[in-house]
Fold:
Amino acid sequence: MSAWEAGLAAASSPSWEGRARAGRDLAAFAEVPEAAEALVRLLLDAEDTAVTRRTAEALARVGSVAAVRVLARAVAGADDGQADWLETGVLDAEAPDLAAACAALAWDREEAVRRGAAEVMVWVGDRS
Structure:
């Protein structure tokens, strides 16, 4: 079983710790469609905000356009409470290059990604 397949399995764990670990482990595989879908679910975890926060932090630390695209999709679909925890996770990462990844998504084919990336850009400002 590959690392991202193990992360996919853990993403369905009944344990918040298992799901948070899955978010951290899957962040490096954000460009893999199956991992991206699981990451969005983890970012919008309805059972525990720690999963949301830690997954957002992991994606922000990766900082790739693929990772920020996943984060932006979740931000666009988040309620106010989830958005607060997503922002907290992003800011916890202290990742200086997120503004550049957000800017790269300004012309994404999905309107939700464009909207979410714009929101993340507001959170991080231009720290690059």
Notes: The mean pLDDT is 92. Residues 2 and 60 are 23 Å apart (CA to CA). The radius of gyration is 13 Å.
